[in-house]
Amino acid sequence: MVQAVGASFGWLLIVFGTLLMVAEAITPGFFVAVPGTVLIILGILILLGVDIFSSGIGVVVGVFIAIAAAGFTIWLYSRFSADTSPFTLSRDSLVGKEGQVTTEVNQDTITGKVRIGGTDWSARSTAGAIPAGRTVVVVESQGVHIVVKEVCV
To answer: What is the arithmetic mean of pLDDT over 90-118?
Structure first.
């Protein structure tokens, strides 16, 4: 009976660990891969008959394997993760970037709109009007808007 309870608990740990891994796959960055991996490995140890809860050597083996699994998972996760360096997009960082005019841009007003990287920015031109659909490059930022000039093709 004790063996059956241990096996059931081992399977429970494996199932819960697998659910955490699936959650990580669905929502990367949630970082539940580490506890998921640890639970799966501890569940496997229990199914193999390693008594990780009551014997001193079992506790040491369990802790060692859990730490090793966590370290390996963190290392593996960092190898496959995309660069997650903090990224801030501001008007000043737009200088030199190209975009598309979505609303006509004029020299005298900031009612024009330019889409750069999926974000619309209030804009004015360096000279004359630039109709919607044209490609522009940002030459500077001023206050709450950017200043653009048309890219000659």
So the answer is: 87
